[in-house]
Automatic annotation (TrEMBL):
<protein>
    <recommendedName>
        <fullName>Glucosamine-6-phosphate deaminase</fullName>
    </recommendedName>
</protein>
<feature type="domain" description="Glucosamine/galactosamine-6-phosphate isomerase">
    <location>
        <begin position="6"/>
        <end position="227"/>
    </location>
</feature>
Length: 244
């Protein structure tokens, strides 16, 4: 779906999320959301905050799992996804703290494998993801599933692509400060969500969107694996869709 602007598209996505939350509330159940970081979902989160503050949307029944986190990363560092989520969403809504799950960038190396299995188990335990929102990196990554990721991959420690680190270098004040690794949900983890929405805005994303939408399914552009899934939607602004 192509919208005129990022704003219009983001409001639509926020409305979809609010609908899921309310539907589950009516049944006395939790809504389980897979969330993303980066610039892409920021306006969706802004609209969710507005719906909370102005229209009384409650997040008391919402459980969230974030896609990824840099490794190593302390939660109070400026570039941490914990901080990002707090500042851009969680601090402004009524979600119970214990319902928030983000991969832990503070683990010792030998603890990571167990943590990742536990992350997957927790998602299953709460009934699976009702919706996963995704951005896309210029390497075609979803989460931090870089080129070479397997379609059935689970949550794991990965090595970041050079282009991803270059794109992150502004946030870190130089590429040399960007961690070389991250913990990310796998493509297999993402695929288990009942609905998947990939969002992309601006001309900067136009060429990777062309590859992701029109290219052959290939491990060299992990987002093309989304073609293997029948409940995926790409939501784009006119600029991101301009090469299609
Ligand atoms: C980041 C995140 C991804 C995100 C992507 C695009 O590195 N790990 O989950 O989708 O890169 O970022 P942006 O939305 O800022 O363009």
């Amino acid at each position: 779906k192509v919208y005129k602007s990022e704003e219009t598209a983001s409001v639509k996505v926020a409305k979809r999320i609010a609908k899921i939350i309310k539907k589950r509330q009516e049944k006395g159940k939790n809504a389980v959301l897979g969330l993303a970081t980066g610039a892409t979902p920021v306006k969706v989160y802004e609209e969710l905050i507005r719906l909370h503050k102005e229209e009384g949307l409650s997040f008391k029944n919402v459980i969230t799992f974030n896609l990824d986190e840099y490794y190593p990363m302390q939660p109070d560092e400026n570039q941490s996804y914990v901080k990002f989520m707090d500042e851009n969403l969680f601090n402004h809504i009524d979600i119970p703290r214990e319902n928030i799950n983000i991969p832990d960038g503070t683990l010792a190396k030998e603890e990571i494998a167990d943590f990742c299995l536990e992350y997957e188990r927790k998602i299953t335990e709460v009934g699976g993801l009702d919706l996963q929102v995704l951005g896309i990196g210029r390497t075609g990554h979803i989460g931090f599933n870089e080129p070479g990721s397997a379609p059935n991959s689970g949550t794991r420690l990965v090595t970041l692509d050079d282009l991803t680190r270059r794109d992150a270098s502004r946030d870190f004040g130089g590429k040399e400060n960007v961690p070389t690794k991250a913990i990310t949900m796998g493509i297999g983890t993402i695929f288990k969500a009942r609905e998947i929405i990939l969002m992309a805005w601006s001309k900067k994303k136009a060429s990777i969107i062309k590859k992701a939408v029109e290219g052959e399914i290939s491990g060299s552009v992990p987002a093309t694996y989304l073609h293997l899934n029948d409940h995926v939607e790409f939501i784009l602004d006119a600029d991101a869709a301009s090469e299609l």
